[in-house]
């Protein structure tokens, strides 16, 4: 037995050098670096994150800057307060109870506190239609809006290209039910382009709404890079033009600045909008929602937004809202209703818009009265 143990030990000691040699040979063959290793080698090092302007005599900890310092920093005028107030709380509670969703929340809009907390009959909310489940959405939307006592409501939706009509019938049904429950409320529909199907545009336009909105988002040259690949600048113009032809008195669109546009391109866009009888335009700063989205080209100064407001008004737009935090439906109720109540205003565009909306409201009230009789 002892002899066997000695023999086995001898075999093991003889085998070990072979193992060592094989390991040595294996490690002597250089490996091709992986793609990840190459990215690490060529990527930024710790030194890239340390600022250069550190005093050698400084005894405190080294100052480091995290993130990509080549990107423009968020200006102070784009920072907002945390939303609060009874109107804000009431609207949020009803939304959860009725299973409704708003763009205001899902897009993390910085103006949610201002819009939801607006003055009496002037608060504004943007309801998102046609989500995952929506069999009773028209009824629930009408019920919620009648509770809130809002003066202005914006209806929009996710893209529903899977539906034959792109959701046009659902839009029309929701608008009709809202008008039944609250005839005096102003309703804006912010729709997609329905893939160019103008019959769908017409169906929504003739549903009893007050404002038809469709956003061109940016200038023509940047449309393929900023918007969905299926979106076309001239197709959007056709949507707005057909809504006007279908009897809508107020058409509206929105332009984002800070995506790489030039002054000449913005002017050409405004001319194209006026040529298609668009009444209302809003300008706002593009904000990058996540790192997966397009980067901000630049942050536009408030003075430049004011400049575009003046130019658009001079071109004949009935109403213009322009500012870093302005969005398509930003405080829409307060803007429109304030203008409607403003007597002797020097703003001819505002008076024009107010007159058109007042006429629509009067016709709605008279027609609803005839129906009841």
From TrEMBL:
Its EC number is 2.8.1.8. Residues 90-318 form the Radical SAM core domain. Its main location: mitochondrion. GO terms for cellular component: mitochondrion. It comes from the Eukaryota. It catalyses: [[Fe-S] cluster scaffold protein carrying a second [4Fe-4S](2+) cluster] + N(6)-octanoyl-L-lysyl-[protein] + 2 oxidized [2Fe-2S]-[ferredoxin] + 2 S-adenosyl-L-methionine + 4 H(+) = [[Fe-S] cluster scaffold protein] + N(6)-[(R)-dihydrolipoyl]-L-lysyl-[protein] + 4 Fe(3+) + 2 hydrogen sulfide + 2 5'-deoxyadenosine + 2 L-methionine + 2 reduced [2Fe-2S]-[ferredoxin]. Keywords: 4Fe-4S, Iron, Iron-sulfur, Metal-binding, Mitochondrion, S-adenosyl-L-methionine, Transferase. GO terms for biological process: protein lipoylation. One of its GO terms (molecular function) is metal ion binding. Its cofactor is [4Fe-4S] cluster. It is found in: Mitochondrion. Binds 2 [4Fe-4S] clusters per subunit. One cluster is coordinated with 3 cysteines and an exchangeable S-adenosyl-L-methionine. InterPro entries: Aldolase_TIM, Elp3/MiaA/NifB-like_rSAM, LIAS_N, Lipoyl_synth, rSAM, rSAM_sf. SUPFAM superfamilies: Radical SAM enzymes (SSF102114). It is an enzyme of class 2 (transferase). [4Fe-4S] cluster binds at residues 104, 109, 115, 329. Pathway: Protein modification; protein lipoylation via endogenous pathway; protein N(6)-(lipoyl)lysine from octanoyl-[acyl-carrier-protein]: step 2/2. Belongs to the radical SAM superfamily. Lipoyl synthase family. HAMAP family: Lipoyl_synth (MF_00206). NCBIfam families: PRK05481.1, PRK12928.1. This is Lipoyl synthase, mitochondrial. It comes from Rhizoctonia solani.
